[in-house]
Every structure is written in structure tokens, then in C-alpha cells.
């Protein structure tokens, strides 16, 4: 019998097992979920979407690496969150967007919004969303110049987005019939940001994330349902040439609602942690989006809606958590 | 009978039941045993023997008058070679009676089959047997079996869940000591006057469930049923188990008896069933020896006081140098610093991990994903508790119900950022207690 004793064993607190899913794998799942949208953007806009996505992803990773190096902080690049931010930002840009401007966008996202607030987990706003908003306000022309899709047989090189057409319609400058049909919005043959054009591709990616339990369905479902119900009611009241049901579908499929609901609003760090908070957050995003789309001068409001709700997240969290825990004992059966 | 429609949150921690098919082997008497005087929650015992004394199997060698206590018995016959103090796994100091076995295993004259005629003799017999909660808590069983509100207790649950990964000793007990479990349960239910008894077993042990169903039917027992639990962690935690079986919520601070329920581990019940027949007190224990540093993982019965080093020696010794040794399962078991510690009553597993399996991943920043909250059986918010702990905010810890935490470790298990959330909860409870917040 072995007579060597071991008196120098590792002592740590239980549990002594951990799941294999770590932050890096979580982020990898998000990247995988973005693949369908990425493929659709290549199909719709051609090779430039590959180049623009690559520029965003690489520059985002570089900025995070450089910031940590400069600030003598541990390298966090391998958690892949910078890469996710870069790709999501790229998916929010028109495919013709200049590379150098995109790099400014990733700089804002990574350095200003994320790293300067303390890195992953400490940012108060979604980095990609703020990056997009900064680009939209700084380079409005480039951000709203939409290359036509490869399915477009006209001679034009740029066209309007579905929501752009809608705002013209709302001003009475165009007829309702000029709106693209819902099927082309759903499949993604109508112009727009790279990742936003195809609702079906986003749904596939989103379903993958929900199936893998990376995201909870509460935020996307409540966000999209709110947009649907809000537009249904609004267009039913407005009446006129609009078909309320068609318009409700239109608002869900057009612009950034789908992409924002599945990929931006569900960002863990900047959305509430409790189910009830997530519900409030999703409904809030939907309402703000529709208010901006219908009554404000911007045709699209998803980014602003998500940013607005990001700012409310700490408040929602603290209210919901207090409500939940501070009355009596811990409740057990709530799912 | 199968599970409730509603379940508490649980996790899939993996099962790793490598030894489920290993029939229990009885370990030969080792060259030395060290019997701890603190083998139960509550007061430690005082040694009743001194250096040079001859002791026999089953002889009481430690006892005390304190209320929350049980006697300790000699597990071997032989000579007391000393009374030592040694640091225990909790960090405190233990008194150990060191016995050099003569390997004759002569039974003490004190051993006699208990005569149980009424509640008092029942409780006295349970105490005399040295029984503590063998599921891990090591609470003296005779106190649990003597609730103040005995009239209200109507349900007896035998916990055969064994939700901890790796451990299969309860499973083996159910397969090998089936009749003892049934006999023990019927006797306990007779004196607790409970109308219904459940043997709750996770559905990943269908052989045990089938065996109990068969024997209960054959013997025409009507007040004892098996109950199938989901094979998820931590279904065997007392408060979770009560909810799963009866649908009654059992927050911390409420005794199961207050809800009319008494829960006992299946191994405790099986031991009691055996004790009724031969009167031999709790001097040996079935346990699973596993982990990637052990050459031949198996289920063994070892005398209490056997050194862990000798236990692993019986299982072929170390395959590779151990980096971490656990008393108990990987989710709630305690890491010990030395393999020279002795087996105690509530050991149900010894797991020895190599450097690779003992690897502690690097902690990264919380990403607020909420997985800890979704994993918590009691819907606590471990990430919020961790923040309150880091801020030493006793009021916040208390508001967020840190005292409800049972330290099952589900939150730490699922955390993608590898944060030691359960550990922080444990420390957070200390902060709340120190601050004296009710």
C-alpha cells in the first residue's frame, strides 16, 4: 500500500463542478446565431457586406485589445464579446458604408461605451446601439444612403428603405401602394441595413438562441408583440388607405425591430435580469419604437428605443427586485 | 406515484454515476482508526476512554449530556493508543480517539437488541444507536424523530434522491438493504404515527424504484409508496424534496415538522432497520469512492474512523497524485486538506480529483445573464447577493433573502463567468448574522 500521504490538497468552497458553458461559449452562440443574417446580407448586397463586417469585427477586437494593453488591464479579447459587438454594429449599417466611418463606430462602441465604463458587464448602454446612433448623427447622409438590393432590376444604385417610404406616405407625398409588400420584407429583398433586411434569417438565429437557452424569449416576444399591437390599434384608428393588419406585419418586419428584438435588446448587461423586468423592458422598447416611427422625424426608432430602455434598466431592475424579495419570504413557484 | 405538476428550478449537473453497478465491498479492518468526537451538529462528545484502554466493537467511547448530541461508538476492537486533536475540514479542532485494532472484532457486551415499546424507548433507542442524519447534515436523528408537534406530523419522506453527481452509496443501500429500509421505515412511522410514507427516488434509479414497488406489493404494505423525482440537481435537498413530494413550501427557519413532514435519508432508515435486528450501533458506513485520481472506483463499507488514505488504498490507491479530495459530492461536499483525516458518520463519498479535474476556472466579470437566478430552487438572485456581499451591505443581503440560501451551489455551477456565488452567499450569511438583522 502506498504510504505517501497528501497533506497539501487544494481547499476551495463547493461546488467543485462547473458547467461547460462560459462567457466565451455564450458569445460564440450569439455569433453562430448571426450567421443566417450575415449570409442574407451577402446574398442581398454582395461581397461588400463581408468586407464591412470583417472591418467592424477586427477593429472592435483591436480596440479592446489596445485599450486593455494601454491601461495595463488583463486581456479580455478571448471572451469574444468585442467580436459580437463589432458584428452587431456591422449588421446595423448600410452595406455601402465607408470603412473608416465604421471604424469610428467601433471605437465609440468598444472604447467609449464599453471599456471606459469598466469593460464587459459594466457598460450601461448597449455598445453596438450607441455606436450606431453616433454614426447616424455624425454621418447622416452615409447612414441613410441605402444601396439597392441585388434583386432590384431598376437602374438605380440607391433606394429608400421600407420605413423611409412609409414616412413619405405618412406625409402624403406617396401613395400607400408604393410600400413594399410584407413578403419581400420577410424574406429580405427590400433595402435596409445589412442584418435587418431579412426577417426570416433573424428568426432562425433568434430561435437558435432561444433553443440553446442563451436568451430568454420574453424580451423579443414582448418587444415584437408590442410593435404589432401598437400599430394594429394605431392604423385601425387612423383608417384611410391603410389595412391595419398588413401595417402591423409591416412594422414588425420592416427596419430594425426583428434584429433589435433578438440581438440588441437581449444584451444581458443592459437589460433587466428578472422576468418581470424583461417584460417591462420589451414592452417599453416596442412603445418607444412606435412613438418614434409614427410621430417623430426619424423614420426608424429601434436604436433610440433600446438606448432609452437601457437607461431605464437599473431603475426597472431595482423596482422589480425590491417588489419581488422585500415582501415576505422568497416565493417558490414562480417560473 | 409520480411528481407534482410544479417543480422548483433545478439544474442538470450531470450524473457521473460511474459506480452505480458496483456491489458494495466490505473493507478489511485497517491498521489504525481515529474516531472523531464531533460527528454531529451540536455539542461534541467527551472521550470516555483513555490511552491504554481496551475497547470492543460497539462500546460507547464518547458521550455528553448536551441536548443536541449522540454517543460515539468504537468501530473496532483493540487498544486506545492516544487521544489526539486534529484540525477538521471545517477549520475547527476535533478530538480524536486513536485505536489500534486487534482485528478480532469482538462485540461489546453493551450491544443488545433494542426493546421499543413506546415513544420514550423509541427515542432512547435512536439516540443510543448513534444515528445522525446520514444525508450530510449529521443532525441527531432522535431529536428530529421527537417533534414537539407530533400530532400534526402525518407524512414521512425517505430521501433516496441522491442528486449529487458521482455518489451511488444510497443507490446501493436501496438495492442491497431494501428490507432494512422498509422495516426501519415502518417502525419509524409507527412511533411518529404518520399515516403516509414516501420513498422518494430520482427517476435515474429505475431498478431501485422497481425493487421497492415489488417488495411493498409483496408484503402488502399500504402506507408506504415510492415517489419518482426528476433526475435533476438538487431534488434531494430537504426543502426541495418536501415541495416536490407534498407541494408544501418550506422556507428557511421553518422546520419540516411544522409542515407535518419529517424527512430522513434512506441510509439512516436502512441503518435503523438493521439496528432493530442486531442492536449494533452506527460504526461502519457505506460510501462511494470515485474521482479520476482513484485507481478502482467502488462502493465500500468502511469502519468509522478509517483514514481516507487507507480507504483509497483499498480502492487500488491513487492513479495520479490527488489535487483535491472531497468528503461528499462535488456540489456540496467539503474539500479537505489532508488524506489523513478519518471517515465520519455522515460520509457518503470520498472523491479524489487529479489536478485536471480539480482545476478552478478563472473568475471573470458578471454579464448579468441571470442564469444564477433561473437555477436557484428558491428563486433567489445570487448576482444581486454577490454585489451586496462585495459591498458588505448587510441590509441588502437580508432584503434579498440571503438566509434562504441552502448553499446547493447551483448558481456557481451555471455561472458562465465562473463566479463563486454560493461561496459569497455563505459569507453573506455571516455578514447578516454579525449585523444582527432579523
From TrEMBL, chain A:
Keywords: Cell membrane, Electron transport, Flavoprotein, FMN, Membrane, Phosphoprotein, Translocase, Transmembrane, Transmembrane helix, Transport
Cofactor: FMN
Subunit-level organization: The complex is composed of six subunits: RnfA, RnfB, RnfC, RnfD, RnfE and RnfG.
InterPro entries the UniProt entry points to: NqrB/RnfD (IPR004338), RnfD_bac (IPR011303)
GO CC annotations, alphabetized: plasma membrane
Organism whose genome encodes this protein: Hornefia butyriciproducens
Main location (coarse class): membrane
Annotated family: Belongs to the NqrB/RnfD family.
An individual GO BP term: electron transport chain
Residues bearing the modification FMN phosphoryl threonine: 161
One Pfam family per UniProt: NQR2_RnfD_RnfE
Subcellular location: Cell membrane
Topology versus the membrane: Multi-pass membrane protein
Reported function: Part of a membrane-bound complex that couples electron transfer with translocation of ions across the membrane.
Transmembrane segments: 26-45, 50-67, 97-117, 129-148, 185-211, 218-238, 244-265, 277-295
Protein name (database record): Ion-translocating oxidoreductase complex subunit D
Entry's EC annotation: 7.-.-.-
UniProtKB/TrEMBL annotation, chain B:
Domain 4Fe-4S ferredoxin-type: 356-386, 394-426
Domain of life: Bacteria
E.C. number(s) listed in UniProt: 7.-.-.-
Species, as recorded: Hornefia butyriciproducens
Subunit: The complex is composed of six subunits: RnfA, RnfB, RnfC, RnfD, RnfE and RnfG.
Record: residues binding [4Fe-4S] cluster 2: 376, 405, 408, 411
Record-stated family: Belongs to the 4Fe4S bacterial-type ferredoxin family. RnfC subfamily.
InterPro entries per record: 4Fe4S_Fe-S-bd, 4Fe4S_Fe_S_CS, Ion_transpt_RnfC/RsxC, Nuo51_FMN-bd, Nuo51_FMN-bd_sf, RnfC_N, Soluble_ligand-bd
Protein name from the UniProt record: Ion-translocating oxidoreductase complex subunit C
SUPFAM superfamilies linked: alpha-helical ferredoxin (SSF46548), Nqo1 FMN-binding domain-like (SSF142019)
Residues reported in the UniProt entry to bind [4Fe-4S] cluster 1: 366, 369, 372, 415
The keyword Metal-binding is annotated on this UniProt entry: yes
UniProt keyword annotation of Repeat present: yes
Protein location: Cell membrane
Required cofactor names: [4Fe-4S] cluster
Amino acid at each position: 500500500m502506498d504510504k505517501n500521504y497528501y497533506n497539501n490538497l487544494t481547499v476551495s468552497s463547493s461546488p467543485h463542478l462547473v458547467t461547460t458553458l462560459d462567457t466565451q461559449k455564450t458569445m460564440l452562440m450569439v455569433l453562430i446565431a448571426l450567421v443566417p443574417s450575415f449570409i442574407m446580407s451577402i446574398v442581398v448586397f454582395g461581397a461588400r457586406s463581408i468586407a464591412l463586417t470583417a472591418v467592424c469585427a477586427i477593429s472592435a477586437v483591436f480596440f479592446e485589445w489596445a485599450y486593455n494593453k494601454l491601461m495595463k488591464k488583463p486581456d479580455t479579447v478571448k471572451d469574444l464579446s468585442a467580436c459580437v459587438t463589432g458584428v452587431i454594429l456591422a449588421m446595423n449599417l448600410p452595406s455601402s458604408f465607408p470603412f473608416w466611418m465604421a471604424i469610428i463606430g467601433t471605437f465609440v462602441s468598444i472604447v467609449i461605451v464599453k471599456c471606459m465604463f469598466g469593460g464587459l458587464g459594466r457598460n450601461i448602454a448597449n455598445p453596438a446601439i450607441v455606436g450606431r446612433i453616433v454614426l447616424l448623427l455624425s454621418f447622416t447622409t452615409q447612414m441613410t444612403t441605402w444601396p439597392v438590393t441585388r434583386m432590384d432590376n431598376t437602374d438605380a444604385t440607391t433606394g429608400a428603405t421600407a420605413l423611409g417610404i412609409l414616412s413619405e406616405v405618412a406625409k402624403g407625398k406617396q401613395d400607400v401602394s408604393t410600400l413594399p409588400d410584407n413578403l419581400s420584407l420577410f424574406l429580405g429583398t427590400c433595402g435596409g441595413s445589412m442584418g435587418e433586411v431579412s426577417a426570416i434569417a433573424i428568426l432562425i438565429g433568434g430561435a437558435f438562441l432561444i433553443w440553446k437557452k442563451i436568451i430568454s424569449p420574453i424580451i423579443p416576444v414582448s418587444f415584437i408583440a408590442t410593435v404589432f399591437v401598437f400599430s394594429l390599434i394605431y392604423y385601425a384608428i387612423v383608417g384611410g388607405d391603410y389595412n391595419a393588419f398588413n401595417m402591423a406585419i409591416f412594422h414588425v418586419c420592416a427596419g430594425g425591430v426583428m434584429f433589435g428584438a433578438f440581438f440588441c435588446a437581449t444584451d444581458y448587461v443592459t437589460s433587466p435580469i428578472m422576468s418581470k423586468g424583461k417584460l417591462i423592458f420589451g414592452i417599453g422598447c416596442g412603445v418607444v419604437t412606435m412613438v418614434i416611427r409614427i410621430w417623430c422625424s426619424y423614420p426608424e426608432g429601434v436604436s433610440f428605443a433600446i438606448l432609452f430602455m437601457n437607461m431605464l434598466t437599473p431603475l426597472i431592475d431595482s423596482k422589480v427586485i425590491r417588489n419581488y424579495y422585500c415582501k415576505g419570504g422568497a416565493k417558490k413557484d414562480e417560473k | 406515484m409520480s411528481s407534482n405538476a410544479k417543480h422548483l428550478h433545478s439544474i442538470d449537473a450531470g450524473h457521473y454515476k460511474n459506480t452505480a453497478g458496483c456491489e458494495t465491498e466490505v473493507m478489511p479492518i485497517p491498521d489504525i482508526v481515529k474516531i472523531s468526537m464531533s460527528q454531529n451538529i451540536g455539542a461534541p462528545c467527551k472521550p470516555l476512554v483513555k490511552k491504554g484502554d481496551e475497547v470492543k466493537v460497539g462500546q460507547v467511547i464518547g458521550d455528553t449530556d448536551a441536548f443536541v448530541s449522540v454517543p460515539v461508538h468504537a468501530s473496532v476492537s483493540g487498544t486506545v493508543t492516544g487521544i489526539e486533536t486534529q484540525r477538521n475540514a471545517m477549520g475547527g479542532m476535533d478530538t480524536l480517539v486513536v485505536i489500534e485494532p486487534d482485528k478480532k472484532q469482538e462485540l461489546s457486551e453493551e450491544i443488545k437488541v433494542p426493546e421499543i415499546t413506546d415513544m420514550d424507548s423509541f427515542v432512547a433507542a435512536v439516540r443510543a444507536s448513534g444515528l445522525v442524519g446520514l444525508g450530510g447534515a449529521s443532525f441527531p436523528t432522535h431529536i428530529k424523530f421527537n417533534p414537539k408537534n407530533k400530532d400534526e406530523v402525518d407524512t414521512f419522506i425517505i430521501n433516496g434522491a441522491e442528486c449529487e453527481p458521482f455518489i451511488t452509496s444510497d443507490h446501493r443501500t436501496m438495492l442491497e438493504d431494501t428490507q432494512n429500509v422498509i422495516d426501519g421505515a415502518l417502525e419509524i412511522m409507527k412511533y411518529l404515527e404518520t399515516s403516509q410514507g414516501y420513498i422518494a427516488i430520482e427517476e435515474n434509479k429505475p431498478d431501485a424504484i422497481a425493487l421497492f414497488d415489488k417488495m411493498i406489493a409483496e408484503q402488502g404494505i399500504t402506507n408506504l409508496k415510492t415517489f419518482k423525482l426528476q433526475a435533476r440537481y438538487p431534488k434531494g435537498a430537504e426543502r426541495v424534496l418536501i415541495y416536490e413530494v407534498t407541494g408544501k413550501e418550506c422556507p428557511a427557519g421553518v422546520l419540516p415538522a411544522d409542515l407535518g413532514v419529517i424527512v430522513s435519508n434512506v441510509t439512516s432508515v436502512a441503518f435503523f432497520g438493521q439496528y432493530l435486528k442486531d442492536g449494533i450501533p452506527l460504526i461502519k458506513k457505506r460510501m462511494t469512492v470515485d474521482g479520476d485520481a482513484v485507481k478502482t472506483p467502488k462502493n465500500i463499507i468502511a469502519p468509522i474512523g478509517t483514514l481516507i488514505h487507507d480507504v483509497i488504498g483499498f480502492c487500488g490507491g491513487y492513479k495520479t497524485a490527488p489535487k483535491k479530495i472531497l468528503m461528499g459530492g462535488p456540489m456540496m461536499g467539503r474539500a479537505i486538506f489532508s488524506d489523513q483525516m478519518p471517515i465520519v458518520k455522515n460520509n457518503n463519498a470520498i472523491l479524489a480529483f487529479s489536478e485536471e479535474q480539480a482545476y478552478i476556472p478563472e473568475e471573470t466579470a458578471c454579464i448579468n445573464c441571470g442564469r444564477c437566478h433561473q437555477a436557484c430552487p428558491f428563486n433567489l438572485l445570487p448576482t444581486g447577493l454577490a454585489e451586496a456581499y462585495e459591498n458588505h451591505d448587510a441590509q441588502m443581503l437580508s432584503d434579498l433573502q440571503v438566509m434562504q440560501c441552502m448553499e446547493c451551489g447551483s448558481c456557481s455551477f451555471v455561472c458562465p463567468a465562473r463566479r463563486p456565488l454560493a461561496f459569497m452567499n455563505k459569507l453573506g450569511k455571516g455578514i447578516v448574522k454579525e449585523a444582527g438583522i432579523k
